[in-house]
Specification:
By secondary structure, the chain is mostly helical. The chain is built from three helices and no strands.
């Protein structure tokens, strides 16, 4: 007669089944990625917005308006890309 505690039908522990790790690995990766994202967000500094951002934008618009030949309208630029004809700007 055999001892009931040493039978060959003893189930294996849960961590020895590959499918368990397949199911557990997805959420575990998400948790690790969220901690990594939190670390990057806390450690990284946001850039400071210039207090004079509005005036800087106006200055950029003025410098762009000084060169109208470089700002072809969208239709001219699209036609130039399709046909190869260089758009000309009309004198103001």
């Amino acid at each position: 007669m055999s001892n009931p505690t040493t039978s060959s039908n003893t189930p294996a522990p849960w961590w020895k089944f590959g499918h368990v790790w397949l199911v557990v690995s997805g959420p575990l990766i998400v948790v690790v990625a969220s901690f990594l994202t939190f670390y990057i967000a806390v450690r990284g500094m946001d850039p400071i917005v210039d207090e004079n951002y509005y005036q800087a934008g106006l200055d950029i618009n003025k410098s762009l308006a000084a060169k109208p030949e470089s700002l072809a309208p969208a239709m001219q630029a699209r036609n130039h890309a399709a046909t190869g004809v260089v758009p000309t700007t009309a004198p103001r």
